Amino acid sequence: MLEIIDYLKARYLSEKAQGIVEYALILAFVVVVAAAIANGGGLRDKVGNVFNSLSSQF
Questions:
Q1: Cα separation of 22 and 30, whole Å?
Q2: In this structure, how many other beta carbons lie within 10 angstroms of the beta carbon of residue 43?
Q3: Contacts of 37 (CB under 8 A, 6+ apart)
Q4: Which H or E run includes 22?
Q5: Which of 54, 26, 52, 58 lies closest to 44 in space, CA to CA?
Q6: 26: how many CB neighbours lie within 10 A of its CB?
């Protein structure tokens, strides 16, 4: 029984699994930001203004 628990710990609590979770969180954040920009609500204009101001400064 302890061998099974050790195997499950090694499989699901490894650094590889942590990396996958981190990538999934980053992907979820990007999707939320993209959806907020696509739906408008003034966010699209604000982001556009930031990019325009940055491009004019360069």
A1: 12
A2: 13
A3: 43, 44, 47
A4: helix 15-38
A5: 52
A6: 10
How far is residue 14's CA from residue 22's CA, in Å, rounded to a whole number?
13
What span, in angstroms and rounded, lies between the C-alpha atoms of 43 and 58? 23
Task: Let me know: does 37 contact 47? Beta carbons within 8 Å.
Answer: yes
pLDDT for the residue numbered 19: 76
How many angstroms separate the most distant Cα atoms in the chain?
65
pTM: 0.45
Q: Kindly state the average pLDDT of the residues 24-30.
A: 92
In the DSSP assignment, the letter for residue 40 is -
